[in-house]
Write a structure and sequence with these properties.
- There is one protein chain.
- By secondary structure, this protein is mostly helical.
- The chain contains 16 helices and two strands.
- Strands 1-2 form a two-stranded antiparallel ribbon.
- α6 packs antiparallel against α7 and α14 runs antiparallel to α15.
- The longest helix is centred in the last third of the chain and has 32 residues.
């Protein structure tokens, strides 16, 4: 709950603006003027995002609401997010991904990879679920929904991605095994240059032509090289440049938001045509990942905390990397749509699941509790 008078008044103002915006939006929908409601809807999401930050139980959704505000802006005013003068904004996607991956590397260390030896069964089960269940599920859903080929391939692409850093945050909030979460993210990211092109060639090749070697190089330059630089930074300079340590998480959040906005603007027409179906598809894909990951952990006879971790790791994909690959393939407006939709959906469902588990801490006492605290 809010702790200061200033925050309290800020929340009252934010809730008031959100309420007025919501009622105004409803009136405009009833009057058939939704096409003109853009500014009001943007203000609604932004005000809710500010209001949610004042409550511990809600603040996990604040970033997602800001993403919604940004996406709404891109849908109503796409011309501002496609080109600036003669510069095409999609050219920013790859460098933004590289900056985000560098930030991930700065938060990693050798211990994140060495942890594999301490919990091999949990790591194997998590990787198995992530790199088998999710690609196959993505392919199945793409077939069932009957999307156009390039959009269907985008669903397979998001299913073939490694875990994203958001999964580490959700694992922490869910009182899951944070050490395992970080380890799975690190190992899955290193395996991505091999497994993602393989699945895209096998499954995505049903819909579009896939150059697996070119995709492998794209992943190496967008992921492996920046993470390597980040690891080196962690080893040599971590803690010596405090301003950079504090800045990188913010840069990563803003970078992901901007990538989603650019892709939304580029693929606006396609998104308006198939948006509801694509949202339904990504929601099924994402939540099925949580369910299958959790019960895969149970099948491996893992602890409750480890099962929660694997559920989150399997269900949450690196949408930013998928967006970058779509851009490198020259298909931002089609192949990139599923990753753009998956990002906000994943953050909403992940926050809900993490909040639910946070209120129901595991009863068992795992032997790696000390490791989790220090991770």
């Amino acid at each position: 709950m809010v702790s200061t008078a200033g925050q309290k008044y800020r929340n009252i103002i934010a809730w008031s603006i959100a309420g007025i915006s919501f009622l105004t939006t409803l009136v405009m929908i009833v009057m058939g003027r939704l096409a003109e409601a853009g500014p009001v809807v943007i203000i609604l999401f932004a005000a809710l995002g500010i209001a949610f930050r004042g409550y511990d139980v809600l603040k996990g959704f604040a970033y997602t609401l800001m993403i919604f505000a940004a996406v709404t802006t891109a849908l109503y005013y796409p011309q501002y997010f496609i080109k600036v003068n003669n510069f095409t904004l999609t050219a920013l996607i790859t460098p933004l991904i590289q900056i985000i991956m560098f930030g991930m590397g700065t938060e990693m260390g050798v211990k994140d990879f060495a942890s594999v030896a301490k919990m091999p069964k949990a790591v194997i089960s998590g990787l198995l679920g992530h790199f088998t269940l999710m690609p196959l599920l993505g392919f199945t859903l793409a077939k069932v929904f009957g999307f156009p080929p390039e959009i269907a391939a985008g669903v397979v692409l998001i299913g073939s991605m490694p875990c994203g850093m958001a999964s580490n945050v959700m694992s922490y909030l869910a009182k899951a095994n944070l050490a395992l979460s970080i380890t799975l993210t690190a190992i899955a990211t290193l395996l991505a240059p091999f497994l993602t092109p393989m699945w895209m060639k096998i499954l995505g090749g049903e819909f579009i032509e896939v150059d697996a070697l070119a995709m492998m190089w794209d992943i190496i330059k967008m992921v492996i090289l920046p993470i390597g630089a980040g690891l080196l930074f962690n080893k040599l300079l971590k803690g010596k440049l405090e301003w950079l340590d504090k800045l990188m998480p913010l840069v990563s959040m803003l970078g992901i938001a901007f990538i989603i906005v650019i892709i939304t603007a580029s693929g606006r027409n396609n998104l308006l045509q198939i948006g509801p179906a694509l949202i339904a598809c990504t929601l099924i894909h994402n939540t099925s990942g949580y369910f299958l990951g959790y019960w895969l952990g149970r099948a491996f006879k893992l602890s409750e905390r480890d099962c929660r971790t694997i559920a989150i790791e399997v269900g949450m994909q690196n949408g930013g990397l998928a967006s970058g690959l779509a851009k490198e393939m020259g298909k931002t407006a089609t192949l990139g749509l599923a990753p753009a939709v998956f990002g906000p959906v994943m953050n909403i469902t992940g926050s809900i699941l993490a909040s639910y588990w946070h209120r129901r801490p595991p009863q068992e006492k795992d032997t790696d509790e000390k490791e989790i605290v220090t991770a």
